[in-house]
Amino acid sequence: MHKEKGELIRHFSQGLVSQLLEAEGVHYNIGACQLGGYDFEQIKANLNLSVQHFYLHTLIAGAIDFQSEKAAMQTELESLEWQKHTDTLQSLVNACEQKEVQLWVEEDKLKFKAPEGALSPELLEQLKASKTFLIAYLQSETFKKHQKQYERFALTPIQAAFLMGRDNTFELGNVGSHYYSELKWPNLDVEKLEKVVNHVIGLHDALRTVIYEDGTQAVLPQQPYYQITISNETPEAIRAERSHHKYPLGKWPMFHFEVSSAHSTDTILHLSVDLLLLDAWSADLLMREIIKAYQGQEVKKPGYTVKQYIADEKKWHLEHQQFLQKAENYWESKLKDIPSGPELPFIKPLSEIEHPKFRRYTFAVSDKAIEALTQKAGQYNLSATAVLATIFSKLLSHWSGGKALTLNMTLFNRLGLHPDVNEVMGDFTNVALISYFPENQANFLYEATAIQEQIWQAVEHRAKNGLEVLRALNKNNPGKAVMPVVYTSLLSSESADMENNFFPEGVKEVYAVSQTPQVVIDHQIYRRGDEYLINWDVVEEAFDLRQLEKIVTLYEAWVHQIVEAENWDIQLSADS
C-alpha cells in the first residue's frame, strides 16, 4: 500500500510500539524483569545470555510483578558493589597469603585459618570491615581467574633441560645456566636506577617468576620491592662471588643487581641473572629497557605473557599437525648423515670435568664493519648471522683437522602468536643443528650459501623442538654432551641501526661471562654501544689456553678479511 515508503513506515511503527511499552507497560505488569526471576534456562541458551545480562523484556519472558522485580534488581546491584573494590580486596588477600593466613567461604560465611601470631589486630580488623565484600569476591569468577593466573605451570623444554643440567650426572653438568655482566656507568644515580628496576620488574612476569625443583614455575601474585645492593667490595671480589652463581630453586629473585664504587666516575653496575628465567634475547631486552627507562624513555608493559605463549603455542601445534609432521620428516632425514660435534683437541675428557668453570675470550668489531658485512651479505642473499656462522664453522673444522662438524645454533624466532610477542621476556629458546662439510676447492661464498640454506630450513621446520632432535641423536649415550659447541647471534635486525645502539654515551660493558650446562664453547655476538662484541665462553679446563688464544686470534683475522674482501669468491686459509 505504501510502496517504496513501506519499510520506513514499518520501522517507525515498531519504534512507537516499543516506546509505548516502555512508558505505559508497567501499569499492566509489562516491563523489565531480573534475569533469573523466572526459569530462563532455555531462553538463555537460545539468546546466548550470561549473568551480565540483568534485564530481559517481558515480550519474551511473560508478565511480571514490576514492583517486586524492581526491588530484587536493586538488591542484586547492591550485592555487586564489591566489584568497585577488587584491587583493595586482592591486596588484602595478598597480605593474608604473605602471613600464611588461609581464607575461604563456607555456607556464605568467611572462614580463616592462621599460624599462631600471624593474624595481627590490624589485619583482623581489616578482615572484619571487609567481610561482606570479601565473601562475594572470594566466590566470584574474577577471583578464580586471578588465582588461575598465578598457578604453577610447566617449564619450557629448554628450561627443563637447563634444570636437569644442574645435576652432576650429566657430562658437563653441575652448572646453573647463568649470565653475568659489569657495566661501567660513571656517576650512576643508584636511587633512580632502583626505581627503574622495580618498574621493569612490574612490567614482566618473568622477572617475578619462581622456578621449582619439580619442573614447574609460577609468577608471584604480588610484586616484592627489589633493593639494589651498594657494595664496599672491589669489582673483582663481586665478580668472584657472582660471575658463576647458582641461584637456589623455589626462591625469588633469580637475579641480582649490585653497585660498586658508587657515586664516582668509576661506578660499576654488576648484573647477574639465571638463564632459567631469560634467554639471551630477553637478557638483552632487560638491559635495553632498564637503560631506556633510566634515560626517561617510555617502556611499556607487553599485552602478553610467557604463560599465555606456552598455552597458545601448544594449541597452535595441535591445530597445525601438518607442520609438525613435515618437521619430523625433515629432521629424521637429516639425522641419517649428520656429522658429530667438533672433534676438538681437548686436554681432558669432558666426562672428567666435574665443576665446569667458564672463561670469556672476546674481541670487538666496529658497528661500521658489521654494517658493511651486512650490506655485502645482502647482495648475496645471505644474513650476517649465516656469514659469521660459516667463518666460525670453518675455523673449528681447521682446528679439528679438517673434519666435517655440526654446530648447536640458538634460534630466537618466536611464533607470531601476538603483536607483542617479541617484547615479552622469558626463555623461548629453540635450537637447530647446522652442519659444515669442508670441500677443498670450495670458496667462501659457496660455503656460506650452504650454511644459509640450512638456517632457512631450520627456521621452516622449527615445529619440531631441537632438544627432541638432540635426544634422538643421543639415544645410545644418555647424559653425554653430544653437541657441546653453541653458536648464538643477536644480530636480530641484521643491521647496525641506531635502535640497536641503546647504550648511553659513557656507559661501557667492561666484563661479562655466561655459562650453560653441557656446553664447552658458547659463541655469542651482540652489540654494546658503537661496537659489536664477539665472545667465546669456554670451559677452560678442557683446553690448552695458549692454543685457544691463537684460534680466537685467527677467527678475528678471518672476520676482518671477509669484511674487507671485495668479493667472497675467496678461500680462507690459516696461512693467509
Query: In order across it, which strands form the biggest sheet?
Result: 12-18-17-15-13-14
How many individual domains?
A: 4
How would you state the average pLDDT, rounded? 87
**Helix fraction?**
25-40%
What is the topology?
Elements lengths: L5 H19 L7 E3 L6 H7 L7 E3 H4 L4 H14 L6 H13 L3 E5 L2 E5 L7 H9 L1 H8 L2 H9 L3 E2 L2 H8 L13 E7 L5 H14 L5 E3 L4 E4 L9 E3 L3 H8 L12 E6 L7 E7 L5 H15 L11 H14 L1 H14 L23 E9 H13 L4 H16 L5 E7 L18 E7 L7 H17 L5 H8 L11 E5 L18 E8 L5 E8 L2 E9 L5 H20 L12
Parallel strand pairs: 9-10, 13-15, 15-17
Antiparallel strand pairs: 1-2, 3-4, 5-8, 6-11, 6-16, 7-8, 10-11, 12-18, 13-14, 17-18
Task: Put the structure in a nutshell.
The chain contains 19 helices and 18 strands. With 576 residues, the chain is an alpha+beta fold.
Structure description:
This protein is of the alpha+beta class. The protein has four domains: 3-79, no CATH class; 83-149, Arc Repressor Mutant, subunit A; 154-294, 2-Layer Sandwich (Chloramphenicol Acetyltransferase), CATH 3.30.559.10; 317-345 and 358-564, Chloramphenicol Acetyltransferase. It contains 19 helices and 18 strands. The protein has helices at 6-24, 41-47, 58-61, 66-79, 86-98, 121-129, 131-138, 141-149, 157-164, 190-203, 235-242, 280-294, 306-319, 321-334, 367-379, 384-399, 444-460, 466-473, 545-564, and strands spanning 32-34, 55-57, 102-106, 109-113, 153-154, 178-184, 209-211, 216-219, 229-231, 255-260, 268-274, 358-366, 405-411, 430-436, 485-489, 508-515, 521-528, 531-539. A six-stranded mixed sheet has the order 12-18-17-15-13-14, with helices on both faces. Helix 10 (190-203) crosses helix 12, helix 15 (367-379) packs across helix 19 (545-564) and helix 16 packs across helix 17. The longest helix is centred in the C-terminal third of the chain and has 20 residues, at 545-564. It is globular. The termini are far apart.
